[in-house]
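User: structure tokens for this one?
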Amino acid sequence: MKKLLSLIMVSVLLLTLIPLSANAATSGTCGENLTWILDDNGTLTISGTGAMTNWTYGRETPWNLYGVNETKIKNVIICDGVTTIGNCAFDCIKNLESIALNDDITLIGNYAFNNCYNLYISRLSLPYSLKSIGNYAFFGCNISIIDIPYTVTQIGYNAFAYCEQLTELRADGNGYYSTMNGNLYNGDKTKLIQYIEDDTTFTIPDTVTTVGESAFYNYNNNLTTLIIPETVTKIENSAFYKCSNLKEVNYGGTKAQWDNITIGSSNSPLLNATITYKNETINLSYNMNGGEGEIETKEIDENSTTTISSTSPTKEEYTFLGWSTTNNATTATYKPNDTITVETEDITLYAVWKKIVYTETQVLNGIFLVAPTGVENGNRIIFACYNDDRMVYVNPYVYAGESTIPFTTTETYDKVKVMVWESLETCVPLCEAEDVPLN
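Assistant:
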């Protein structure tokens, strides 16, 4: 008896609900401060201020509860003040023919106009207030041209996929989205205006951070060159699947940055292409190594050639010989204005100094007394004698630490030059010659 009573109650409840689904409401609310009205001509008008409610399915919306108005709604007008179009707001409205969007909308939600396959629009210009377009937002609609403003920073997965009539996505400004998610799936006939440079080259805008799943799937089989900005940090599965003719990728970042990009599966055309990177820069800096002076650090591309500064530092009682890559070198590897080839590591050039040596010479009754300063043991002190500016006699003397060195000659010369050499073999003078007149 109880079981029979339960069946009767369920039947009564069902009979009560059937009329509710058969007689759809013609007005109501669709957000905290939004209202809607559906007139007898099939025009649905949404007005008020603020955001629209998000729904999980199209048949949850108040104007299409249980699907009773799927064929009645023909036109949608979003009045000024409405800031978002909710998820699934007009999902599968079969006879929708036109939409009017205001200049306050910032977001078009997921599945907002999904599968409105009778929405034939020759050109849809999205408002400049718009920032985000959700997944499948216009999936399956029959729009020929879509103008996307530069304010848009996000386009969801398959937002424009399978729009059979779509021929052009017109991008306004320097770039317009941060993700590309399958929106060129029908790319054999959809052209992304502004970023396709020719029949073979495609430039991804520098606002893109993620190339979404199937973004370039089977896109334009003539595509051979792809330009990817350094802003891209993720490339999802099958983004370049079947792009069989892709041969060259010009990446705007360094190889280290490229290696940090997350690249999903089924992207072999991308990975097999020849990839070029931006050269890393290295610093060429100068260390005065105890001297005085200042030379700015120079930033140059790695694996390149540059010119060494023409500026020479100074150091009291030392001669600047040039530059070396070590701080204790005694000979210079580079001179000012030399060229230097760098590789991938920062380079510091150290000044190479040589102690200035000199002599003080006195002549007493034909005897030269030479007092060396800064001369090391083993250096050669050279006495060169001249007549009529011609050297006629040379007397080398190996210095052994004496405070004075006598040089006596019985000949008569116009002058004698006294200088210090490192050795006779290398003939490297360590000081300027001192002229000693003999008259």
